[in-house]
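Thread: "does anyone have the structure for this chain?"

Original post by V.I.:
We have the sequence but no experimental structure in hand. Need at least a predicted one for the grant figures.
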Amino acid sequence: MSFNKIILLFLFFTNASYAEEIYKVEVIFIKFNDVTTDEKFIKNLNFIPQSVEELKENEIELIPQKFIDNVLSSVDLLDLDINEIQIITGEEDNKPITEIYNLYKYENLENLDFLTGRLRWRDNIEILDSISWYQPVKSKNEYTFHFSDKNNISFYLNLYQSRYLHLNLKVFFGKLDLDREIKEFIDEDRRVKNSEINYFDHPSMGVIVKIDKT
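Reply from O.Q.:
Generated one for you, tokens below.
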């Protein structure tokens, strides 16, 4: 048996043993333009994440179809460089190539796209941002992070399993800064269900989140 085939078999069985559940996360950030409040926010956000995976701009990974059919669900293998993948599979340049979005990279909305259309018809609602990505379940203090330069919004999401699936959300205007107190924020830990639409409310903003198991 050739060396390449031995490696491919090893990757296949490793994938079957350690494959992780992958979820597609879709998020919409909104602002209510006709809501005013004189509420005084006294509590400060006390948040120090253990680790943060920052979402990157949309980039396409080109991966041979044969490789996808054998080991697609392995999270670790998706991080391989395309040159490494081509060496392992022995695919030639003229073989069929499939476009695959890597984990933690921006995508267009799919399941919540219908909602953005309805929200844009509302005069009192402004959509500040909308993003989507794929990710595995994390430990309790590991967050996926997104920052909108245009609207100065920080968004931290932790998807973890504790008997049930949970979503821990931190959203606020600005960035984490040791010299700046964050008093207007969303800080909520909620049990979520697959394909359920969740809404997180605050006088300054609203966040809609949908989690779909792939």
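V.I.: this helps a lot. Residues 3-18 form the longest helix (16 residues).
O.Q.: and Residues 16 and 88 are 18 Å apart (CA to CA).
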